[in-house]
V-type ATP synthase beta chain (Deinococcus malanensis), 471 residues
Amino acid sequence: MTLLQKEYNDVAYISGPLLFVNAASDLAYGAIVNIKDATGRSRGGQVISVTDQNAVIQVFEETRGLDLATASVSLVEDVARLGVSKEMIGRRFDGLGRPIDGLPQVVAEQRLSINGQAMNPAARAKPEEFIQTGISTIDVQTSLIRGQKLPIFSGSGLPHNELAAQIARQAKVPGHEGDFAVVFAAMGLTQREVSFFTQEFERTGALARSVLFLNKADDPAVERLLTPRMALTTAEYLAFEHGYHVLVILTDLTNYCEALREIGGAREEIPGRRGFPGYMYTDLASLYERAGVVEGKPGSVTQVPILSMPDDDITHPIPDLTGYITEGQIVVDRTLNSKGVFPPINPLPSLSRLQGNGIGKGKTRADHKNISDQLFAAYANGLDLRKLVAITGEDALTETDKLYLRFADDFEQYFIGQGDQDRSIDDSLTVAWGILSKLPQSQLTRISKDAIDKYYGTKMDEMWKGSRSLG
């Protein structure tokens, strides 16, 4: 890290977290600077815009107390960097990469730009390896594949934090347990949520294979823009330098996008949809596209971004743009949550576009895809019949219709509502067969005869029947 002797003293004005400095056109975009006030107090900042007239600097702390006449700016580093090391595994950091676990600063093996390096599209390998999350609805019906980016769409008040912690605790690449790591980045957390994640990771032992970046709601908005980039830089280093299969969980991207809108407003930019910046698509893509598998590299980066949809509106700009960039979505459902089902994942609007690449014979099980399709069709039929019953009553239904109604109830209670159990893919398929076996064989039109002969009639033992919700 080198210091430039030159100081910039012509601070024109301050707008929220932004500093406008005249005669600073030689500062580079993305440079890290040090801002001093008359008392000698220092604040960090990053250059986010440079023109012939001025440079715009995001201040990493509050700008209260900065005086235009006495403030000075000096260069610290040409670009925002993070010191990375394998020893970061098992550690907790704030949104700027500073330790918050009471342990010393990490001795960096490298200092890497948090913007990452562009991944050559020609060097990308096709994602084809199944990641087991231990959650039946995800593993069977919206399978997560190594190198994929698969977001979770949730809503305010829904248990996406609990779901994120469960995925972080249970996820694994079968056969690669020893070189699997989780990088967890949380943005805009309340103190209660910080305590929850900290205690959950420590209580379950998940911290031993995880790196945590925790940005709190009362931290500067600017810091929220850096937190996911700190996490992804760490993930890329562990994956492509040390061969880890890294699962990156980012929560909550809605807080990130709102910080982006706040900074855009302070810069007096022309707003786009719902007041968000017009470049939000590009900005989100710069995060999501840092997932993948690279030819010749043993490691990989897989992303599970989590975002809470304002007013449960899936057409809101944040989930809408996210859906364009990523390869599917997992939808957390408010109706299921109100029934006490956990995790309340609705498989009908959920989708994994890469599922077919990583499941089937030799990867999970030969009947996996057919079971997924049959569950989807039977559950959709059961929900349609629920609506019909609300109008006509059950007396108008055939015996087969009544079986589908009971199937929908069992599916929600035993398959979706597994609580905090960690199920292997074989366990999940066993539960699925146990529920499907209550339907007549003639109704299993999406499953091969060989699979029906082998698995039909599977009984769920008491272990699965006790897997109701967390309440």
